[in-house]
UniProtKB/TrEMBL annotation:
GO terms for cellular component: nucleoplasm. This is THAP domain-containing protein 1. It comes from Astatotilapia calliptera (Eastern happy). Keywords: Cell cycle, Coiled coil, DNA-binding, Metal-binding, Nucleus, Transcription, Transcription regulation, Zinc, Zinc-finger. Residues 109-136 form a coiled coil. DNA-binding transcription regulator that regulates endothelial cell proliferation and G1/S cell-cycle progression. Specifically binds the 5'-[AT]NTNN[GT]GGCA[AGT]-3' core DNA sequence and acts by modulating expression of pRB-E2F cell-cycle target genes.
């Protein structure tokens, strides 16, 4: 369970969540800083890493390691004391690609269309060559004589 006012209540691989300290003075300081009246702390209550200054966090030294707090760390970053989180978005769906990228895509599509048309014509010619019929030999007297045994 994270703090009720925190919007970062979902684990996403970037955030870390930290349990309340067991030392009574430090625990009391955390309670004062989070400004929650009549708040019951359980063994599952956590505070998101976004409420701690970066100098209070110890980054993991291994890939599977956990982010830890320095000794005596206290959450201090909250909306009521003027701290605002910068919203980072993984993708801006409203952005429009640069015109140069669109121009390249349009010219590439044109080139591909021309290639497709050329290949279709080539396929048609190969089909005609493959067929065994009079149309295949209509332009060649030698072939007609050979296949009809007409001398």
């Amino acid at each position: 369970m994270t703090l009720p006012t925190c919007a970062s209540a979902k684990f996403n691989g970037i955030l870390s969540f930290h349990a309340f300290p067991t030392h009574s003075d430090l625990r009391r300081q955390w309670l004062v800083n989070i400004r929650r009246d009549h708040f019951t702390i359980t063994s599952h209550t956590r505070v998101c890493c976004r409420h701690f200054a970066s100098d209070q966090l110890i980054e993991p030294t291994t890939l599977d390691g956990r982010r830890r707090l320095i000794k005596g760390a206290v959450p201090t970053l909250f909306e009521w004391n003027g701290y605002k989180q910068s919203l980072t978005r993984d993708h801006d769906y409203c952005s429009v690609p640069e015109p140069s990228a669109l121009d390249i895509s349009a010219s590439a599509a044109e080139d591909l269309s021309k290639d497709v048309e050329t290949l279709r014509k080539e396929i048609q010619e190969l089909r005609v060559q493959r067929e065994f019929g009079l149309q295949r030999f209509a332009g060649s007297d030698t072939d007609i004589r050979f296949y009809t045994r007409y001398i």
